[in-house]
Write a structure and sequence with these properties.
The protein has 4 helices and 4 strands. It has about 130 residues and is α+β, with helices and mostly antiparallel strands. It has a domain of about 90 residues: Dimeric alpha+beta barrel (Alpha-Beta Plaits). Strands 2-3-1-4 form a 4-stranded antiparallel sheet.
Length: about 130
Amino acid sequence: MRIMSLLGVCWVGVLGLAAATEPASTAPTPAKTTYLVTYRPGSAWLAGKPISEQPLKPHFLYLSSLYAKGLMTSGGPFTDDSGGAVVLSVGDATRARDLIQNDPAVKTGVFTYELHPWRLVPWEQHQQKM
């Protein structure tokens, strides 16, 4: 019985040591909302030119920087040359709107945009097992 008590004390000591060496809990990551942004030709769109001939290099570089920061998860042009879309993952609509309003293609009028909060459905959870 004395051995069991000693083992119990040792076990409590190990647990206490493990708890003491755990890093301090970090603040929870703020929740992010998904936003779908659709781009359409704006007043500075070069009429009669496909999207590949529009002045979009600054737009591409800007979106690349958003992707590198983890703010944009995907995006690209529509294959019918009617614009494009991006998916943002940010804290709120104000942040999403600020990011898009600072897009060089929006600032120069090459694109106009629509911003929509988007609730993605986890389809893999709804698949029936066969």
